[in-house]
Design goal:
By secondary structure, the chain is mainly α. It has five domains: 127 residues, no CATH class; 193 residues, Lysozyme, CATH 1.10.530; 68 residues, no CATH class; 51 residues, Membrane-bound Lytic Murein Transglycosylase D, Chain A; 50 residues, Membrane-bound Lytic Murein Transglycosylase D, Chain A (Roll). Strands 1-2 form a two-stranded antiparallel sheet. A hairpin with a 7-residue loop joins strand 1 and strand 2. Helix 12 crosses helix 14.
Length: 540
């Protein structure tokens, strides 16, 4: 017992070291006050309530990072994967804030660096999970080991057909192939499985745009063909679009959705972007290089070296010099995986779907129940959704697994109109002394979301009597009762099944793991649950 206690104590001290003195982990001696108490105290003490919510987002991310470390120490692989996805969501939310002040920008960069280092080098369980930024981790590992020397390059042509990207082998390409055959074997096998899952979707879109079919391997090295991938550069989705480029090619992002994560729309956008780059350079290698580092750098390198030969542009950034050999190695292996010692994945269910058009906002939990699916399955088919509801404005095309549409429509049409759509907003009239910050705290929403929904540019100015539409996570406002349950909700008892995680259970019931821990008197930081265990959960 003493040994175990010392190990846990050492882990907690390590967390404190990672997060710094400003860590947001609450102590038992100073419990976190509820939202109303926070508002009352801050008003009384004269704290500036007009500040943006960025510090709060970062605080939440730090807390989750500490829980990741604890879960990793306890070898809770599934919980680590779930918590990682939540941190990436918060980082995307922070990115949405837009213009950060200098202090916020420096703090975000510090956290981003610390989190990336933790993810890349310190999490033992990461090797066993299908994590959102695994492609980036492999990229970090491999580029640390390989230094590309350019200038004198001997090429062996593997495939140079019209309408295709020339596949060549060089010393550098062979280095990457060797990496995937050894250290990166496990991850590349996962990529091959995803290739089988998504090729039926991606290849027809590439053909529609008259693009080389090899570009499917670009999505492979960018994200591991993971629609929910998120990078430290704030790129998102299977094709790793940054916000500005995504917007330029028609990928919208708002409170409800991020279309960079839509595999269909993002693939169409990637085709248009790559076609524009090829029009400018008339060279697929340079188009790929520009996709990685930007058009300006490639143009400057071309001018400096007086050439359009990628292999002679040794002034390009190291990452870009690695990028083309990295792409070529993945394409060469994936064309004939058995020749390089990989198994061709069998019995892989392709990503096939049917669609329906929703005219109004609908709750994900209601849609999943009608379709006879778990909410997480419905989310997998609609990875662009950021909330637990579909968009409130405009038509939304909902993707359903193949064969589900007929059953869904029959059940959906039987539901009364008023029960189909969950309200996602509540109207709040601004009172004297209130600010966007206090209102965001009251409803537990992002100040950025609150400002965006109400089209408020100056977050420091709201008028008394002004009506604000407040977005509600999952269409629910959480309150408390004497018995510890949310106001207006009833008690449910859930029996834990094999493979369940606390985070996933919380998502299925549209609540938080921290609430489930509180309702069941579980210790802070505890995520380990056992099959057969009964959990009290409060639901509508």
């Amino acid at each position: 017992m003493k040994t175990l206690f010392r190990a846990i104590l050492f882990t907690l001290l390590s967390i404190k070291f990672i997060l710094g003195a400003e860590s947001s982990i609450p102590s038992k001696s100073s419990p976190t006050p509820n939202a109303d108490e926070t508002i009352e105290k801050s008003s009384f003490q004269g704290i500036d309530e007009t500040r943006n919510r960025f510090p709060e987002i970062l605080s939440d991310a730090k807390l989750l990072m500490s829980e990741i470390v604890i879960s990793d120490f306890n070898k809770d692989t599934l919980e680590v994967a779930f918590l990682l996805s939540r941190v990436f969501e918060l980082m995307m939310e922070a990115d949405q804030i837009g213009e950060m002040n200098l202090e916020d920008k420096e703090e975000f960069d510090r956290f981003n660096g610390t989190f990336t280092d933790l993810y890349t080098h310190k999490l033992n369980t990461v090797q066993n999970i299908n994590a959102p930024v695994m492609a980036e981790k492999v990229w970090t590992d491999i580029t640390e080991a390989i230094e590309i020397e350019m200038g004198e390059t001997n090429l062996t042509v593997i495939d140079d057909r019209d309408g295709h990207i020339p596949l060549v082998r060089t010393k550098q390409v062979d280095q990457f192939i060797n990496y995937f055959q050894t250290k990166g074997r496990k991850q590349f096998q996962i990529w091959l499985k995803r290739h089988e899952e998504y090729k039926g979707l991606i290849l027809p879109i590439l053909a529609e745009h008259e693009m080389p079919e090899e570009f499917i391997y670009l999505a492979m090295i960018e994200s591991g063909l993971n629609p929910k991938a998120y990078s430290k550069a704030n790129a998102s989705g299977m094709w790793q679009f940054i916000s500005a480029t995504g917007k330029q090619y028609g990928l919208s992002r708002d409170w409800y959705k991020d279309e960079r994560r839509d595999p269909v729309k993002a693939t169409h956008a990637a085709c248009k972007y790559l076609k524009d780059l090829n029009t400018k350079f008339d060279n697929w290698y340079l188009a790929l290089a520009a996709y990685n580092c930007g058009e300006g750098r490639v143009l400057r390198a071309s001018k400096l070296h007086q050439t359009y030969d990628f292999w002679q542009m040794h002034s390009l950034p190291r990452e870009t010099r690695n990028y083309i050999p990295y792409f070529l190695s993945a394409a060469i292996i994936a064309r004939t995986p058995e020749a390089y010692g990989f198994e061709i994945p069998k019995n892989v269910k392709p990503f096939e779907f049917e669609t329906i058009v929703l005219k109004k906002s609908a709750d994900i939990a209601v849609l999943a129940r009608v379709a006879g699916l778990k909410p997480n399955i419905l989310r997998e088919y609609n990875p662009e959704l950021r909330q637990s509801a579909t968009p409130a404005e405009g038509d939304y095309i909902l993707k359903l697994p193949l064969g589900v549409k007929k059953r869904f429509l029959s059940a959906w049409n039987a539901i009364p109109e008023e029960e189909r759509f969950a309200p996602q907003f509540v109207v709040h009239r601004v009172k004297y002394g209130e600010s966007l910050w206090t209102i965001s705290k009251k409803y537990s929403v992002s100040i950025h979301d609150l400002a965006a929904v109400n089209k408020i540019r100056n977050r420091n100015k709201v008028k008394v009597g002004q009506k604000l539409s407040v977005p509600l996570k999952g269409g629910r406002v959480w309150g408390t009762r004497d018995n510890g349950g949310p106001a207006g909700y009833t008690k449910r008892v859930y029996k834990v099944k094999r493979g369940d995680t606390l985070g996933q259970i919380a998502e299925n019931f549209r609540t938080r793991a921290s609430k489930i821990r509180r309702w069941n008197n579980m210790k802070y930081g505890s995520h380990l649950i056992r099959p057969g265990q009964k959990l009290v959960i409060w639901v509508k």
